[in-house]
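chain below, 182 aa
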Amino acid sequence: MKFAKLAVGICLTMAVAGCAGAPDLVGAPAAQAKETPALRAGGVADAPSAPPYTAFGAEHVWTTGLSVTIGQPRSLQPSETAFPQAPRTAVFTVTITNGSKSEYHPAQLAVHAVVDGKPAQEVIDSVQGLNGIGAAVRELPAGRDTTVTLAFAVPKEAVHMQLTVEPNAADQEPSATFEGQA
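prediction:
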């Protein structure tokens, strides 16, 4: 039974990693970093617009009423059965709140990680309860919330990390990007 769970976890991780691709996170921040503030009358510069990121620990709400909060990361040493193996994992509690008028299927949620500008793999470590987004199989009724714990492979040292959250597979809502140190 343990082997079957591990095999399912490995297959799920490989499928997610193969389909995920690198999200287009570089375009907007790089362009904003190169922009210079426009001068208003009197020689006073307008402040550059803030990047389209949400800090870890904050909530992002979509127009449908669905909201996601990505908690502050915590560091964890992966077990021997974790896949893929990594020097450490950044573990996030993801709270999904269904403020819409219909059921939400949490399995539709996609979370892509970028560490210092490079895609990072999700770590499945069932020994430590890190079963990935695939573990969220129950439908979420309107007005209810649920939590999922996700882990991503990171180096031993602290890194800058971004998590891009896509609320549904059909790209009906724009993604939200959370960022911070992990």
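Strands lie at 53-55, 59-61, 66-70, 74-76, 88-98, 110-115, 118-120, 145-154, 160-166, 176-181. Residues 1-50 have pLDDT under 50 and may be disordered.
thats it, cya
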